[in-house]
Structures are given as C-alpha cells and as structure tokens.
Amino acid sequence: MIDNKSIKTISKEELFNHAYEYYSNGEYEKAFAIYKNLAGQEDAYAQWCLGNMYERGKGVEQNDIEACNWYKKAAEQGNVDAQNFLGFMYENGRGVKQDYDEAFKWYKKAAEQEDRDSQLSLGHFYENGLGVDQNYTEAAIWYRKAAEAGDPCAQYYLSNLYNMGNGVEQDIAETMKWCKKSADQGFPMAQNDLGFMYCNGLGVEQDYQEGLKWFMKAAEQELPVAQNNIGLMYSEGNGVEQDYEESMKWYQKSANQNDAAAQNALGYFYIKGWGCSQDYSQGFDWIKKSAEQNDIDGIDSLGECYYYGWGIDVDYKQAIALFEKSAEFGNPASYYNLARCYFHGHGVDKDVDKAKELARKAKELDDTIADTEGILK
C-alpha cells in the first residue's frame, strides 16, 4: 500500500497506474488520496479525476461545489474532459449557479478540441438559443461534427434538422441516412422515427413490417411513444392482423409511462369495450389524464365524455368548453363535435347555419371526417 512517505518516491506515471488500479478495484479512498496529491501538484488530469470523484461521491463525501472547483482548475489548464464536465455543471446549476453563458463558453472550448460530447452540447445550445443566439446553421455544423465522430444522439438531432429544413436544406434522404445511423447504434428515439418513416413511406418504400421491427426495438427500451405506435398498428391492422387485445397491451404500457396519446387511446378502448370489458369509469379516468397534459385529442375525448355521459354526468356546457379548447389547436374532430352541439341545440341555442359552418371547417381540415349527423346534407 502507498502511504504519505512512499508517495514522494514514486514516479507520477506509477502513481497514476496505482490510482487507476485502486479505482478499478473499488478502493476509492486510496485512489482519491493519490489523485489529491497529484492535483496539488497542478496536474490537470489528476484535478479532473479529483473533481469527478467529488461529483460521484467516490472515496469522499459527494460535493458538487468541490467538484466544480477542481474541474475549473483542470479546465483552465486545457483539460478537455474537465471543460466538458464544467460546462455540464454550469448548464444544470450543479455546484454553481446555473449559467448558460458559462456553460456555452466551456462546451465551446472542449468542442474545439474535438470532444464529441461537447460538440453535441454546443449543437443543442445553438439549436435552442441557450447562452447564444439561436442559430440552426451553427447547430447543424456542430451536430455534424459529433455525428461524424459516431455520436448516436447527434446523428438523431442532425436527422431532425434535415427533416425540418432547419439550418440545412430539407432533405428526406439525409434525414433517413442519419436516422438509420443513430438507430443502428440503438438510440431509441431514432429507432422510433425510423419505424415511422417505414410505416409512412417517407424516404423509403412503405413497409409496415420493417416499421414494426424498429418500433419494437425502441419499445423494448421502454420508449413510450414507440409502445403507443405499436398499439396503433394493432388497433388499425397496419402490417399486422387487427388485434384489440394486443393493441390495448401496448397502449397500457405506454400510458403507464404517462404518454398522453396512449392514455387517450386506452381510455377510448375502455369506453368502447375494445379488447377489454367495457368500463366507462376507467375510460374517463385515462382520458382525463391525457387531457390534463393538454393533448388535443384527449381534450376532445374528454368533451365527448361529458357530451355522452361516459363515466361522468352529462354536461353539455363543459363538453362545449372542451371542444372549443381543442378546436383552437385545429382539431377537426372538435370542430365537428361543436357542429353537432349547434345542430341539436345541446348546450347552445340551436343554429343550423353555425353547425354547417363548423362541419365544413372540420371537412377542410380532414376530408375523412364522416358527417354522421347529416349536417351538410
């Protein structure tokens, strides 16, 4: 064992080797003692290691303030890892007051040293205007650097920029290319988006089976939006045999993770008795959860609960308020539900002309909306 006396007679290289061995074996206090000695000699790498041990509480009581102190010492000497970690601490307000300007400064220093994690963070800061004016072109530049270095998150964000045409010319082929690279590395959001592209024939020939494969990969990583998408495929019978019980299973998984779209779908399944015993109370509760997250379909469905008395007493006034709220976001179903209220005089004075106007608006937004009430006849 190395003690305070022997530590002075051992070379720096040997000390680092011992510290690494101690750390790897879980002997953190011994590793900490060596790093502290070397950090006191102004060794930047040891200072970064010491900061990291303070941040993680390894061999010493966890202390973000001390972590930042040592990260800063190392960062000022040009240690790239310390610069990146210091940027993270400023970004998240750990051990220091949250300061996006400072975070940007340190991320940029590390990014210019080809640190791909910092390049990713710098792209995020430019894309969202954190500590710097929003600039999609710069975001694309830094995401690309990290993406080309193999970072799956950067590859995914770069694909999104190509999809939206932000900072780069909109290009579905580039969207697919970078999304696929990210998905192949197991990044769940990219796997979900790739599944969506296959199911909708975006940048690739439509292939529901391939889409389902990628949704499944993301769902296995517990990504709720992918679980919801699988539920939708089984609900509509896209690429699979329609199966409400299987659909409900996936909606339940997603809803349990607070996915608003899945909560709304699950609630509707309970109300209709699809794949389960009909249960208006459960249906209302799940739809309410969705609406409380401001999901426009959930808000519309909650309006229908009040309109039809599904799991709650009929209340036309409340139904209209919810239909109007959802319609403000351009939900065609809500426009038609409002048309129904005016057509029948439910909660409002009967006004057939107003009903026709609202029904036409619903049709303009979605020509598949069925005129079930015969309002436009």
Q: CATH topology of the domain at 1-113, what is it called? A: Serine Threonine Protein Phosphatase 5, Tetratricopeptide repeat
CATH homologous superfamily classification of the domain at 1-113: Tetratricopeptide repeat domain
The rounded Rg comes to: 28 Å
Order of helices and strands: HHHHHHHHHHHHHHHHHHHH
Using the alpha-carbon principal axes, give the shape: elongated
Report the portion of residues in β strands: under 5%
CATH architecture label of the domain at 1-113 = Alpha Horseshoe
Describe the structure.
It is a single chain. The chain is mainly α and 377 residues long. Among the domains are: 113 residues, Serine Threonine Protein Phosphatase 5, Tetratricopeptide repeat (Alpha Horseshoe); 62 residues. Helix content is 68%, strand content 0%. It contains 20 helices and no strands. Helix 8 runs antiparallel to helix 9. It is elongated, with a radius of gyration of 28 Å. The termini are far apart.
